[in-house]
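User: Can you write out an input/output pair for a complex, sequences first and structure second?

Assistant: Here is one pair. Inputs:
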Amino acid sequence: MSAHRQTEDNLHYSVSMLEPDDFAFWRHKARQLVQSNIPPERVSWSEAGGCGDLFSGGDTQLPPVPNDAATVRASKRFLSLAKNVVLHTDLERFALLYGLLWRQQSNPRIMEDKTDNDVRRAEELDKAVRRDSHKMHAFVRFRMVELENGEEHYIAWFEPDHHIVRANAGFFKRRFANMHWSILTPRGCIHWDGDSMRESPPARRGDAPCDDPTEDLWRKYYASIFNPARLKVSAMMSEMPKKYWKNLPEASLIPELIANAQKRESQMVAAGEQDFQAKPETLEEVGTAINRCRNCPIGDCATQAVMGEGPKNARLMIIGEQPGDDEDKAGKPFVGPAGQLLDVHLEKSGIDRKDAYVTNAVKHFKFVLKQTARGKIRLHQSPAAKEIDTCRWWVEAERDIVKPKLVLALGASAARVVFGKTVSISQARGKPIPLEDGSELWITAHPSYLLRLEGEARATQTQLFDADLAAVQQRLVQL
Amino acid sequence: MDRLTTIDKLGILADAAKYDASCASSGTAKKNSLGGPKGRGGIGSTEGMGICHAYAPDGRCISLLKILLTNHCIFDCHYCINRKSSNVRRARFTPQEVADLTLSFYRRNYIEGLFLSSGIIKSSNFTMEQMVECARILREEHDFRGYIHLKTIPEADPELVYQAGLLADRISINVELPTDAGLTRLAPDKNARQIEGAMRNVNSDITETKDARKRFKHAPRFAPAGQSTQMIVGADQATDSDIVSKASRLYDGFKLRRVYYSAFSPIPDASAVLPLKRPPLIREHRLYQSDWLMRFYGYQAREVMDAADKDGNLPLDIDPKLAWALKFRETFPLDVNRAPRDRLLRVPGLGVTAVNRIIAARRHKSLRLEDVGKLTVSIAKVRPFICAIDWSPTALTDRADLRNLLAPKQEQLELFAA
């Protein structure tokens, strides 16, 4: 400290802060002290109402600043840090800052030395204050009260750790400019009426309203946006410590959300997950597994699941829609009227059914019982998209095992089970669609469609059907 | 159709949005609600940093009112709970309802703004018009100056996407899946070319309006917080390498602000083509860490991929930075008193803050190991990779069991991975 002149006295000085968050006052006093060359160990700082330390009660009248006193130096970083550190509740903060200011006069770059204990301590205090301010921005929750004149007044109760209320008034003013609001805290209150800011003495929790109907909506949102499949309580706790919970309307839901998360997740999984272990590796395994399959409700009504049929290394796989009444009873695909019609046309196009693997998009017969004059009959029902998608697993297993070069889909359900989406038959038919595994998908109508038509329409569609089969036969020869 | 109350709809449409990973409300233009055209000011502010107003027990922050305008959808994407063939309960908000809800939450300081997404009803254009209308009501009728994030629909008319960008702070277009094959299989109604085309349009609109603002003060702002996207992880066979390389192409090609990764989550009423188990959440975490390495630590996508194992996936038990360092041990140890900034950033355990502190502190003194300890979170992790005045770890980097020494305990991983 050779640059400093020695003061004549060796007195202790005590400075009493009038407001705990008054940075301007601290700066004024600190500057005066440095200029009078009074080292930190001879100064004690206290807050109004505080009892100070051993030396308080000493000479509080600071000596006059010498006329030729050097200007006091402080780095930008120090000033921005000090503004925040003053807001901390630590009683040592004023002395800590003064010590750093003092040391800066001989070492102007002291603030850059992050290994210095005082610098580190000041940064810790700064961090705590910034965190507290951030939490205030985040966790102030206004409740709306309708005043007698019909205006809305938004009132919040908040308990900050540090003296941050006044320093953060601007944030709320900039955010809620056209609202009337008050933030009540045990460290003082701020009020904004749309034009001006007002301060008032500390308040108690009971001074704030205790309810707002919108909180029900907010709690609904909070509970719904939480994904129970991703429970991570510690991550939540570190960002939203429990001490804040009592003033957050949504926090009351947390224990229950956590307690039920596992149950909700397993329900989600159970509702969605198919009860498959691994994809079967042989056609026999597929046959056994589909009989047990209850991943969709159809499985319960049919007599049996109907497995595909044909050579397990067939070059052509023909996929129909689902078993009908006859197939369900026989346990074999395409044995009913539609199957017989298919056989006729396959033969006409020169495709030998015995060389093809013939199967269905959906493995179980779906029907409704209908009362007729001849008693109850089982009336065929088209499978829903969901049922087709569920059964896609089995058809893919069959495709993986048989590895056909060409897949012929009969009708929209069959096309969906291979292609994953509903396509228009009229647009997709008659041309190859390349599949991921290198094979080709061809799409045509289902023979039962032909059965339902009459007259000219039937003749036209039959012709188209034959043309598709002929194209498939031709393509098979090429492949 | 039974009539749903607002609270019922909110429950359904927030539930439908819970699989969405993005929630950020930062990085936009500074705005506040003082003054303005209506004299007494509007409502809302953005001061650069976003604020997380609450945290859900899944550890994710709640910064925005994240909801769907509707969960009706004409598309049939297998990974999506709202797909056409799903049996989920449906609901639909009017744009006015969304605006009212946003304002009543905002006024109570529950949120920073709105993140609006939607299932596709009637047509892509119709849906996009409705979303734009929500933002218009907020901005024009209520002078709302808080954050708005609109998830745009790539199939919609580019003019509508442009309107969205003029009203929103951020717009996003989801790439959904990292590979084209995955997209074809799981999102049959979507088209990779169309998605990237929409991103390209948004990027050029952002660039043009930024340019215009340099010349004309009153040129309109267009998505000042940029555009982002989301990828689903673990629903198809794509490896971490596939994902990282896709992300890097998106960052470079379309100047995206963020790529979000969303671990495929079991959804009720799932489609049968999806895997049976969700991927470990830790995988998503490792991808975010690698994303961080590319955005803030100067790693190339190639280098992150080098850190992956033979199967193309990043190790789950250690972070990607440590994985890279263990593979390229010859580049260590680094001298904390001499090494340049970009090299120090490669040291496992040293973050950007710690590196900045080291560089500032070493102007004052030569650092000892103890000094470095004061500047970092954990010296144990850093020690094997650095030299200081009184420290040299030569023996350590050669140790075959270094990975085991530095990896967290296995039991712990299992416990918290899920």
